[in-house]
Amino acid sequence: MNTEISSTQLIERDKKYVSPAIYRYTDIAFARGEGPFLYDFEGNRYYDFAAGIATMNVGHNHPRVVAAITEQAGILIHAAAHVGYMQPYVEILEKLISLAPMPIDQGKGILLNSGSEAVETAIKLARAVSGRSMLLAFLDSFHGRPMGALSLTASSSGYRKHLEPFLGGVEHVPYPNCYRCPFGHKNHSREDCCGTWRDFIQMTLDKLVHPDDLAAIIVEPIIGEGGYIVPPDDFLPTLREVCDRTGALLIADEVQTGMGRTGKWYGVENWNVAPDIIALGKAIGGGLPLGATLARADLMDAWWPAAHGSTFGGNPIACRAGLESIAIIAEEGLLENAVTVGDHIQTLFKAVQNELSIIGDVRGKGLMIGVELVNHQNQPVTVEQVKQIIKKLGKAGVVMTKCGQNALRIAPALSITCDMADEVVDIIIKVLKDFVKEF
After folding, report:
1. Would 322 be classed as within a structural domain?
2. What is the mean pLDDT of residues 306-330?
3. Do residues 54 and 411 lie in contact, with contact meaning Cβ atoms separated by under 8 Å?
4. Could you tell me the pTM of the whole model?
């Protein structure tokens, strides 16, 4: 690889050959990464608070992950799980299942290439083994861009533009967003939620989806792409009760919340809820493409041979990188660190809310934090304004993306320190103060 080029030269080549469908949040060309930092071709350093979109949980180029990749590349790169058995494939599923909540901790799984594929696998499994057709998903959710997963995604019509018809048998209901209630109620906190979402789910089962036809409810424990929305504490337990009552399966989309992002191995653990199926992606590959669908053993055993598969899913190198990343998270205490530093970051933003009115809401768990930005009327700032702020942050040395229409998405490596967080939050606050002056 030629590293003698400039960032400008690489960006010009990119614009010539890469589809504009690949949107870039920043104008930065990344040459290398190390720990919580990214560097451009001129050697400028940036705090990476996007972490490959919540993927690089142990940071960039962790020496142990690099060593595991290098070692495995010298042993076996690819042979395909359909052809024979591979040790890394079995070992990472053993580890993922052992960390999962009951009853999936005694379950089985299948490996894929991404979170989107894991979601598609989950809905195929639910329909196949239940003999039912209907799926219940949530507004503001993001489950992926392939056509099956996209049929469930409902965080932006831009993802769905010109693509109808989608997968049939999908209904959407509102996700409880207590800061900006979808039912128009004001001044509710998560602890004082209006609860109208419960009635809406029941109305959907009464009028649109017969309970006998409901194969599964699929839900993100915390809404990801749609705004890092944390639900009220009775939300996931209520979904579990609805599934138990109707005989439907509960699918937890843990693509973004899994592998320590919220301070737990799985986001559902924050509410002590047991799903029937879990979809994983992003961080489980240690930076390499890997997805997984885990489920109760009886569900997986009811799926007949060759019902599903993947040529590259469970690639040995990605499995080794994922296994090493999991070990690092456990041995370096990164679950606990995510909670400590995440709480610290939220405290820093909440401390300036009164003097910095653009900060409307600060929410999250662990190092999955959303900072919702509002105008003087407490209405969401525009998408374009958020994009401007993110580009300004890039120029100030912080790489970040948005979530939802108007929230900054804070999802750094789980290894960052409070001192690092102080430095980054200071930069963000300065950029926000300067932006407010331009309102």
Report:
1. yes
2. 96
3. yes
4. 0.96
Is the preceding peptide bond at 103 cis, omega within 30 degrees of 0? Answer: yes
Note if the bond before 165 is cis, omega within 30 degrees.
yes
Sequence length of the chain is: 439
Q: Classify residue 192: in a domain, yes or no.
A: yes
Model confidence pLDDT, tens digit, residues 136-153: 999 999 999 999 999 999
Q: How deeply is 165 buried, as exposed, middle or buried, from its count of CB atoms within 10 A (0-12, 13-18, 19+)?
A: exposed
**Average pLDDT for residues 152-179, to the nearest whole number?**
94
Q: Is 166 in the same domain as 279?
A: yes
Q: Are 227 and 401 in contact (CB under 8 A)?
A: no
| 432, burial (CB in 10 Å: exposed 0-12, middle 13-18, buried 19+) | buried
Domain count, the chain: 2
Say if 11 falls within a structural domain.
Answer: yes
- Give domain status of residue 358, yes or no: yes
- Is residue 339 located within the same domain as residue 317? no
216 forms beta bridges with 135, 249
Confidence of residue 189 (pLDDT cuts 50, 70, 90): confident
Q: Distance (Å, rounded) from C-alpha 69 to C-alpha 270?
A: 32
Range of the domain at 263: 67-331
Cα separation of 235 and 282, whole Å? 25
* CATH code, 164: 3.40.640.10
* 109, pLDDT greater than 90: yes
Mean pLDDT, the chain, as a whole number?
Answer: 96
